[in-house]
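Before relying on records like the one below, remember that each one covers exactly one chain. Contacts with other chains, cofactors or solvent are not represented anywhere in the record.
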Amino acid sequence: RKGYDKITHAHAYGGAALAVRTVEDFLQIPIQYYVEMDWQGFIKAVDILGGVDLYVEHDMNYDDPYADLSIHLKKGYQHLGGQEAGQYVRYRHDELGDIGRVQRQQKFLKALDEQMFSLGTILKLPALTSTLKQYVKTDMSTITMLKMANTLKGFKDGSLHAELLPGNFATIDGLSYWVPDKDQTKQLVETMFTSSGSNVSGAIPGANRTN
């Protein structure tokens, strides 16, 4: 599509193909493959992996019957199963709004990364793969997915690296946006993906929201 819009709208307008092309054009890096997971797939995957130990930074309470969304989490360190993890990563009703949600999603992914590459988790991969087939869409071949799974076995705890795109809040036509700083974004991308010796295997270029 022509013009600017929230980056997450790319998927609504043109599915995974447009989302991939949008990220490639914006960050000027190639995206070799995509993995698209249904919401129920996320919940089931977290449950199969045994949940995640995480500190919930404050009480979270929000209900939206129209979106079939009910969030009720207490502040404190706790074990989150699939349903609770889903509530945590979807909550955005605090002073930071969508940006706070992005930060929580990255925090969750890092916590999952620190726990998921244990021997016990590796033994769960067959069950995980079988369960997620009905919830996942990807353009990777079966052979490529097997190679990726084998590569993941070699990851060390804490190998995942995520960044929030540099930018600022803005209100445009009554809607809230996170507007990227182009120069700082370019520098960040060069540091993460093109600098000599940088490790890009654990980076998440799409774990951001911007326009």
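Helices lie at 9-27, 39-48, 82-90, 97-116, 119-122, 125-132, 142-152, 182-194.
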